[in-house]
């Protein structure tokens, strides 16, 4: 009987020892974890673009944007290039446009221009803005005219032939009104435009 109690006590002590040993075990260290946070960039609306044919126009001021008079488009304008001065290898002319419609329309800005040959194919043209004058709102009643100053050089720039035409001669020009994309045609019978077709053009004025 005593022996049986001793065996039971021994088993109990061994069990407690095992439990105590388990309780003192420290958990194995876990390797550090790397957390990657991906941010979704805030979506912003793209800036509005301004279309104006072959060249971008500056944004119209509020007074112009609020004007309810329609723009002068290619179907309501006709044009002619009027001869001007010629001095020291420079040519100065005016592009005159007329409102051929039955209602008033407006022009604001520089617009575009592309020289062409007799077949209508493009010839070298580099239209640059010359703010002389700069943009202002031009209102044209039916039959009224607006003007755009044009200037170019007649002397080769050093990369062009010095004998014969400096560039292929032009016979016409496609004129794109400000803020429009379609052109109307005018006659251009002034020969070659040197410096790879570089033309300085003012804004339209009255």
From TrEMBL:
<feature type="compositionally biased region" description="Low complexity">
    <location>
        <begin position="31"/>
        <end position="56"/>
    </location>
</feature>
<dbReference type="Pfam" id="PF14016">
    <property type="entry name" value="DUF4232"/>
</dbReference>
<keyword id="KW-0732">Signal</keyword>
<protein>
    <submittedName>
        <fullName>Small lipoprotein YifL</fullName>
    </submittedName>
</protein>
<keyword id="KW-0449">Lipoprotein</keyword>
<feature type="domain" description="DUF4232">
    <location>
        <begin position="72"/>
        <end position="195"/>
    </location>
</feature>
<feature type="region of interest" description="Disordered">
    <location>
        <begin position="21"/>
        <end position="81"/>
    </location>
</feature>
<feature type="signal peptide">
    <location>
        <begin position="1"/>
        <end position="20"/>
    </location>
</feature>
<dbReference type="InterPro" id="IPR025326">
    <property type="entry name" value="DUF4232"/>
</dbReference>
